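Box S2. Input/output pair 1.
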Amino acid sequence: MPTTRRRFLNLAGGATIAGTIPIVTLRPLQATPAMLNTAIRNVVGEAQLRSGRVKLDIPPLVENGNTVPMTVGVTSPMTADDYVKSIHVFNEKNPQPNIGNFYFGPSSGRAQVSTRIRLADTQKVVAIARLSDDTFWQVAAEIVVTLAACTEELN
């Protein structure tokens, strides 16, 4: 079939339009408990999670989920032989389950992180510490949020 001018313009216009359509990747608007467990396993692997040594200071009732103060600290002498390598913070229902990863060394002084986070809804927040002996310690807290954050509409 011979290529006519009209056919050529239709094909060229279609290719131009197809090139301007963005590729959209769909993902859930909220993390799920399964996504939380997967994110935790990506950090700790098959290691056993122990309770204790980690302190999570976060209000149990939050009026506004846009700025939630949080402090995570780990009891450790922070010597060359016994120190905290990292602290990882996870949540259950935000669009991404991993809030943050913080890394330390023996000369860090103390293993403590203070920051503000956003919480999409009432949910569980988990803090995990990795020590120099490659043990993992965790603490979890259930936070009630009255005004949710992370709810912007996607355009």
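Box S3. Input/output pair 2.
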Amino acid sequence: MSIERVNPADLSPPTGFSHAVVATGSRLVFLAGQTALDGGGRVVGETLPEQFETALGNLLAALKAAGGTPADLARVTVYATDVADYRARAAELGRIWRRLAGRDYPAMAVIGAVRLWDEQALVELDGFAVLD
């Protein structure tokens, strides 16, 4: 498997994402949206960073169960119920990302959502990975 992160010099410098990801491999893993649900199906965490950490941990747990690692992530989409809060906490969320997933950033987008499946959920992450 090979993942190449492409960040053209004529685009704005990426912070916490890659502009493009070229992936070659033999297996695609599509990761369902993950929120801050614990093993009992309850949303945990009151703040965006708390919920982001749990949601990212859940996404990475699903990826690991499928045989992948954070470096295999090609694309992640973040759905946030408050994009202004997400932007205001970007540095803190970035630290959480780096601690759990490292610095091999996938192509990413953050999309505002009126609400998520569980009304208490503030953030949801989904994505796909490319494995050997």
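Caption for Box S3: Helices lie at 48-65, 83-88, 90-101. The CA atoms of residues 43 and 121 lie 6 Å apart.
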